[in-house]
Design goal:
- With 405 residues, the protein is α+β, with helices and mostly antiparallel strands.
- It has 15 helices and 13 strands.
- The chain is 33% helix and 18% strand.
- Strand 2 and strand 3 form a beta hairpin.
- 45% of the residues are buried.
- The N terminus is likely disordered.
- The structure holds flavin-adenine dinucleotide (FAD).
- The site of flavin-adenine dinucleotide (FAD) has 35 residues, from helix 4, strand 2, strand 4 and strand 9.
- Flavin-adenine dinucleotide (FAD) binds next to helix 4, strand 2, strand 4 and strand 9.
Length: 405
C-alpha cells in the first residue's frame, strides 16, 4: 500500500454532507450493515465505499496490498492476499477475551510502543453487554475494555467523526470486513498520517433484536449468556455469567426459526476473511483452541511483530475433505431441516471425529456461507446478484450444485 500522505488531506465534505439522522433511510437500505460511515461526514463517499452498494475487492486489495488475490492459488482464492499464515495463542491469555486475546494485546502494544495514537475498537454498553459502543481508545485500559466480541452490527466508523481536532494522526482500526471495505475506500481522505488495519473474520452477524431470537432458540439460559462462538468442533460454545459452559452441536440448531435471524447485510456478504485488512486474526483456519493469523502485507507483519514473542505459534495445517458435507448442508439448510437433539449429537460426534480440520475447516465454513449467500441474493435481489458476487466467490460457489433460486 502506498504510504499515506502527510500533506493536507483532501478537504472534508463538511458542507456537502451531514450525518444521516437516526431513523432516516441509509443508502444501502435493507442491506445496510450499519458500519457507521453514514453517521459521519464521510457519508459523502458512500456511493463508492459502501460494501453493499458497490463491490470493489480487486481495487481494494491492489491499493492495500499492492496486488489482488491470485485466483489460481487455492489458499489465496479462499483466504485472500497473504504473505504468511500461522496459528497461535497468547502464552498469557487475556481473561475475558474472545479467544486468547491476541487482538487486544496487539492494540495495547501498538499504543505502548508509540506506533499509534489511538485504537478504534468496540466497547460495550454498561447496561447491555451485547450492545456495541465504538470508541477511539487512547490508553491500554480502554483497549482492554473492548475485548470480547459484541456479536451484533456495530457502527465502528461513526467515530471517524471524532478524528478532527483530536490530535490523532496515527490510528489502528480493529474492524470486520464491511467496515474495512468502507474505511479503505475513504482512507486517503482521512485526516491521518498512518492507518493500520487489524481485521476480524466475520459472518452471520445480527441486530440486537436478532441476537435475542438466536439466544432464545439456542441456549438453555439466554439471559445469562456472556460469550458465545461457533467453534471448530462443530459446536456452539456458550459461556454463562456464572462461569459455566454450555455447548450445542451446529446440527441441533432450530434452522426453521433462525433462517431470517441473520442481518440481510451478512446474508449478502462475501468478505468473510476480511480481504482489505493488513492483518487478520480469527480462529477457523486453526485447530480447535488456537487462533488463526493471516498476514496480508508488511504493515500486517509490523502489527504481528508487536506481539510475536508473546505467542506460542505453529504452522497452519489442513486435514479431511469438506466437499460432501458442504453439499449435504446446502440441501439441509434449504429445506430447513431440524434434527432431533440425539441425532444432532450423533452427527456432531461423527463430524468432529472425521470432519475437516485446520484450513479445511476454514474452507468448509467459507463454502457453506458463500453458497448460502449466493442463493439468498439470487432469490431476494436477483437484479444485483451478478455484480455483487465477487469473482473469487463465484469460482467457489460454482463448485456446488445449488437449489433453483
Ligand atoms: C461478529 C463476529 C463474527 C465473527 N465470526 C468469526 C468466524 O466466523 N470465524 C473466525 O475465524 N473468526 C470470527 N470472528 C473473530 C473471532 O471471533 C475473534 O474476534 C478473533 O479471533 C479475535 O479473538 P481475540 O481473543 O484475539 O479478541 P479480543 O482480544 O477479545 O478482541 C476482540 C476485538 O473485537 C472487536 N469487536 C468486538 N465486536 C465487534 C464488532 N461487532 N464489530 C467489529 N469489531 C468488534 C473489539 O473491538 C475487540 O478489539 C468474528 C468476530 C465477530 C466480531
Amino acid at each position: 500500500m502506498p504510504p499515506l500522505t502527510t500533506a493536507q488531506p483532501t478537504p472534508l465534505p463538511h458542507e456537502r454532507a451531514r450525518p444521516l439522522r437516526p431513523g432516516s433511510t441509509y443508502p444501502a437500505r435493507d442491506l445496510c450493515s450499519q458500519c457507521g460511515l453514514c453517521d459521519s461526514r464521510w457519508v459523502a463517499y458512500v456511493r463508492r465505499s459502501c460494501a453493499f452498494l458497490e463491490q470493489r475487492f480487486e481495487a481494494m486489495e491492489a491499493e492495500a496490498h499492492g496486488r489482488s488475490r491470485d485466483l489460481d492459488d487455492e489458499n489465496e482464492l479462499y483466504f485472500g492476499v497473504h504473505q504468511r499464515m500461522l496459528t497461535a495463542r497468547l502464552q498469557q491469555p487475556i481473561t475475558g477475551a474472545q479467544w486468547t486475546g491476541i487482538v487486544s494485546r496487539i492494540g495495547v502494544r501498538a499504543l505502548e510502543s508509540g506506533m499509534v495514537d489511538a485504537v478504534l475498537c468496540v466497547q460495550q454498553d454498561p447496561e447491555d453487554r451485547f450492545t456495541p459502543v465504538p470508541v477511539l481508545a487512547r490508553t491500554p485500559e480502554e483497549v482492554l475494555a473492548a475485548r470480547v466480541n459484541k456479536p451484533t452490527l456495530s457502527p465502528n466508523l461513526r467515530v471517524l467523526e471524532q478524528l478532527e481536532g483530536s490530535g490523532i494522526r496515527r490510528l489502528l482500526a480493529i474492524a470486520v470486513g464491511c467496515q474495512v471495505q468502507a474505511l479503505r475506500a475513504v482512507q486517503q481522505t482521512l485526516p491521518l498520517d498512518n492507518l493500520y488495519v487489524l481485521g476480524l473474520p466475520c459472518v452471520d452477524n445480527v441486530s440486537r433484536e436478532g441476537l435475542r431470537t438466536f439466544l432464545n432458540s439456542a441456549s438453555r439460559s439466554p439471559d445469562t449468556v456472556v460469550h458465545y462462538e461457533f467453534m471448530q468442533d462443530f459446536r456452539i460454545h456458550f459461556r454463562h455469567s456464572d462461569g459455566s459452559e454450555e455447548t450445542l452441536p451446529f446440527f441441533g440448531l432450530d434452522t426453521p426459526a433462525l433462517k431470517d435471524v441473520f442481518a440481510p447485510s451478512c446474508l449478502s456478504c462475501f468478505d468473510y476473511t476480511n480481504a482489505g485488512a493488513d492483518l487478520v486474526v480469527g480462529y477457523m483456519g486453526a485447530e480447535f483452541g488456537r487462533q488463526w493469523i493471516t498476514v496480508r502485507n508488511p504493515r500486517g507483519q509490523r502489527l504481528l511483530d508487536l506481539v510475536e514473542t508473546e505467542l506460542d505459534t505453529a504452522p497452519v495445517s489442513s486435514r479431511g475433505d469438506r466437499r460432501a458435507a458442504v453439499q449435504q448442508g446446502i440441501e439441509a439448510y434449504d429445506k430447513a431441516v431440524r434434527l432431533p437433539r440425539w441425532l444432532a449429537e450423533l452427527v456432531g460426534l461423527v463430524v468432529q471425529r472425521i470432519g475437516p480440520k485446520g484450513l479445511e475447516y476454514g474452507r468448509f465454513s467459507i463454502d457453506s456461507h458463500f453458497t448460502r449467500n449466493a442463493l439468498w441474493l439470487r432469490r431476494h435481489y436477483p437484479e444485483m446478484a451478478q455484480r455483487h458476487i465477487p469473482a473469487f466467490a463465484r469460482r467457489i460457489v460454482e463448485r456446488y450444485k445449488l437449489p433453483t433460486p
